[in-house]
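Shipment paperwork, digital attachment
Item: protein structure file
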Amino acid sequence: MDVTETIIVPDGDTILHVTSGAESARYLVCSHVLCTSSIVFRKMLGKSSNFAEAVALRESRAEPVFVSLEDDPAVMGIILRVVHFLHKQVPRTLSVDQLVQAAIICDKYGLYEALQLISETWTKAVSWRSANHPEDWLLISWVFGPEAIFTSTSRALILSGLLDPNGDLVFGEYKGSLHECVPSSISGT
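Attachment content:
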């Protein structure tokens, strides 16, 4: 498996090894920026954390600490550039699939505030009305907003929902299902 290595912060203290299936990337980053941007990273790498990675950060500043994550490596790279203020390296548009992955990562690590401004740019750049899979936009709008897209999308999904022969809730002609990461308070599962 080829591993892409990217230096986000030249004197970083943490290497994030991000994998998803056959894709893999390593990012040299700053743990303080991660902790400021995300409550999950704060609990994992913060000064009061008992996680092995946090203990290693406190004990030795010589070598970067290695942290493994299971996320979309390319989209995580984009998000890491956002939180490390490398805005010229951040694309102004993402595909719907990339937006879905960004929403999953944002929700997983609690990066709502850190991604608020760029997510507005990303969601405005893609037409949600012509989406083939409105369940994607249910997740995207739940995480990033705006509320009007969430309301419209959820209404469309409710009106098109059916039970398939297995008793699973599916939507529209393509018989799509909701993403696993859509909260059960939305999906009803």
